[in-house]
Amino acid sequence: MGAGRAIIDGDYTYYHGFDGQYDTNYIDIEYFNVTRQGRPNSDSLKSGMILVHYSHDWIIKDCILYKPEGWDIISPMGADDSPYSDQDGIRIYVSENIEIDGVEIFALGRDAIRVFASKNVFIHHSDIGGINRGIETGYFSVAIRIYSSGGEYKTDNIQISNSTIHDGWQYEGDDSAQRSHAGDWIHIYGDQTANVIIEKCFFYNNKEFDNAYGTATVFMEWAGTSHITLKNNLFINSHPIGGGIAIAINHVKIFNNTFVNYNHTNEGSWFVNIKGTLVPESNSIYILNNIFVQLSENNYYAVRIEKSNFSGIIDYNTYFKKEDLEYLVFQNGKSYNFTEWQAEGYDENGFFGNPNFLSLPETGATSGEGKYQLSSSSLNEIGNGAVITEVTDDFWSTPRLGTYDIGAYQTPTDQIIQKPIKIRIK
Fold first, then answer.
1. Could you give the CA distance from residue 387 to residue 342 in angstroms, rounded to a whole number?
2. Of 168, 140, 388, whose CA–CA distance to 257 is shortest?
3. What are 225's strand-pairing partners?
4. Of 170 and 357, the one with more pLDDT
5. For 275-285, what is each residue's pLDDT tens digit?
6. Other CB atoms closer than 10 Å to residue 280's CB: what's the count?
7. Mean pLDDT calculated for residue range 216-244
8. 3-class SS shares of the chain: helix, strand, coil, % to 5
9. Confidence of residue 2 (pLDDT cuts 50, 70, 90)
């Protein structure tokens, strides 16, 4: 897998490539390939090709994790027929101060990274799905699972940035029976899970498909989970049934993201879904400066609001779809087109129209190769976003100075094409 790299081969016998339990602290793991770990055969045995358990101050850098036991089984079972015995890539359990930098995970099976009741976990510049791995690309059910169980077990300050998460659902093909575990690429839940930032990440599927599977690209649930920010991300050709971001918690901010969907067969799916009674404080949800582009031919909503008394802020967003314009957004049992949506008090400063990206692939099969930056024709998006103090730069770390563009990319000041102005000549 690479000249000069050390290989930890579990021979499908050993459960962990690295096993750090109970005050195994100040560990630096770099440039290892970890493979062929066995799956624990009971729930009492913790999974994890790399296991960090009741420990602190770890760095896991430039490692490649792949092909544990049963990675390619559609519904893997343990030796005792337990469905919970799948292997995880990296498992962080009641630990703190953990950095995951430049890690590649593919052909995994269940959770690429699992974070439970841990604090100060930083995941960045990593690839979950694999880099040029051919038919072994993807093969994970959940890229990053973040959760806690309340009480003394709290998860706090988790940052995911500058990473690529892709093609996780590809198994036997485009069939309706995918894995037995729902494919939520990032799943955040549990009582006492707070302060999660997801920024500058690229989510995509390089494939055409008819059968959606899983719940959402980012699924957030349980009332004790709160203060989640998603900014400057690309969500392209999502495979889960919901497609985008499912919100069933409080205090969520969705700023300057770009969403593009190609082909979903699921009627009534969405880019952003605000769940019903699961959102007690609906005034704590902000959706600003996003681009929603729907290219498929069905009733796929940009925003779906199930909360009956929703009072959050949705504004400065761009919407575009080719047909079925009356199914642009959905609230409390009714569909709206853009004009009707504005009449309801949303997106007063928003736009409907083609954002004119630099390059928009025609099909989802090459969606990972698109150039979703704004072009000189993106007149609605350039300079028309809300100024948000929490968003200081863009997907490429280009500073956002003065006026803000809509979407994940900011046009550099020296490249801004001035909008035409009307001049009356006598």
1. 20
2. 388
3. 193
4. 357
5. 766 565 667 88
6. 10
7. 79
8. 5, 40, 55
9. very low
CB 260, CB 295: distance < 8 Å = yes
pLDDT in tens, 403-424: 999 999 999 754 444 443 333 3
Band (pLDDT 50/70/90 cuts) for residue 241 is low
Q: How many Å is the maximal CA-CA distance in the chain? A: 88
CB 123 within 8 A of CB 144: yes
| 3-class SS of residue 293 | strand
Beta-sheet strands, E only, within 17-154: 18-21, 27-30, 32-35, 50-53, 56-61, 64-66, 90-93, 96-101, 104-106, 111-116, 119-124, 127-128, 142-147
Select from 369, 413, 388, 409 the least CA-distant residue to 258: 409
Host H or E run for residue 342: helix 338-343
Burial 124-140 (b: 16+ CB within 10 A, else e): bebbbbbeebeeebbbb
List C-alpha distances in Å: 30 to 102, 124, 165. 10, 15, 21
Structure confidence by residue, pLDDT tens digits, 353-373: 999 999 999 888 888 899 999
> What's the rounded mean pLDDT across residues 226-241?
85
State how far the alpha carbon of 303 is from the alpha carbons of 7, 135, 261, 292, 335, in Å: 46, 34, 13, 9, 10
Domains of the chain listed by start with CATH number: 6-415 (2.160.20)
Please state, in angstroms and rounded to a whole number, the distance separating the CA atoms of residues 135 and 154: 38
162 to 100, 169, 213, 314, 317: CA distances (angstroms): 12, 21, 25, 26, 23
- Give residue 83's identity as a one-letter amino acid code: P
* pLDDT average, residue stretch 292-317: 82
Phi/psi at 112 (5° precision): -70, -50
Overall residue count recorded for the chain in this entry: 426
**117 token code pair:** 């009741």
CA distance 283 to 111: 33
What is each CA distance from 343 to 287, 338, 381, in whole angstroms?
17, 9, 21
Tokens of 85: 């015995």
At 32-80, the pLDDT tens digits run 999 999 887 666 677 889 999 999 999 999 999 999 987 877 554 444 4
What letter does residue 338 receive in the DSSP assignment? Answer: H
Q: How remote is the C-alpha of 426 from its chain's centroid? A: 55
